[in-house]
Amino acid sequence: MIPRIKICCISSVEEAHLAVRSGAAALGLVSDMPSGPGVIPEPLIAEIARVVPPGVSSFLLTAKQRADEIIAQHRRCRTSVIQLCDRPADGTYHELREALPGIALVQVIHVTGSEAVEEALSAAPHINALLLDSGNPTLAVKKLGGTGRTHNWEISREIRTRSQVPVFLAGGLNPDNVAEAVRLVEPFGVDVCSGVRTDGRLDERKLKMFVKSLQYLDVDS
User: Fold this and answer.
1) Residue 221, pLDDT score
2) Can you give 119-152 as a three-state secondary structure string?
3) What is the dihedral of CA 192, 198, 200, 203, to 10 degrees?
4) How confident is the model at residue 218, as a pLDDT?
5) What does each C-alpha distance from 123 to 33, 105, 159 come to in angstroms?
């Protein structure tokens, strides 16, 4: 099965249109983060979310951990999905479900070691999907994504195999390695930011190469 493609770090309406034309099923819109690329102001997130066509998901990437702050931010941005890039406070999932019915929740799990498996499986019953990335929320300045680094895909495969919900694979993917990653992990979707950019801008040539490498993929090979 060809995985769904999520293009992250969308920085303008023009980039959103380019990503959709190229085959993206989802767009990632990055709000304020402690570190990493792609951050844009909330009014621009809302503007881009308004023009995303039916059938394409808009993801609000948030570093916030408290339900009240996430709810308020989403009401300003109005995306179809909330991507929780850090570990939420206790009770957050329930509060988000109550306040934002119909909005999908995706929890990021940063695969720094085997402990990520239990973290992912603990979160899975409360969310719509997992996204496996290569950040590190334990650092003094948290890294919550956009590192451009891969992680241990064997751990990601175990999570995908045991998870009750769909899994997106992120972290250092690019046109040269995404086919190998998908063959090993067999994720529901793949997420890419820096791997399809040049000097911070979405690169149409790299984007086409990324999509093409998946179009001819035989996962069973």
Assistant:
1) 44
2) HHHHHHHHCCEEEEECCECCCCCCECCCCCCCCC
3) -60
4) 56
5) 22, 11, 11
Low-confidence ranges of the chain (pLDDT < 50): 219-221
Under DSSP, is residue 83 helix (H, G, I), strand (E, B) or coil?
strand
Evaluate whether 188 touches 169 at the Cβ level (below 8 Å).
no
What pLDDT score does 188 carry? 98
Residues with Cβ < 8 Å from 164, sequence gap 6 or more? Answer: 124, 125
Query: What distance, in Å, lies between the first and last C-alpha atoms of the chain?
Result: 12
What's CA 115's distance to the chain center, in Å?
20
Q: 3-state class of 211 per DSSP?
A: helix
Q: What's the pLDDT at 74? A: 98
Closest to 158 (Cα-Cα) out of 171, 147, 169, 173: 169
Distance CA(189)–CA(131), nearest Å, equals 9
Q: What are phi and psi of 16, to 5 degrees?
A: -60, -45
What per-residue confidence (pLDDT) applies to 219?
45
- Six token digits for residue 184: 């090993």
pLDDT at 215: 84
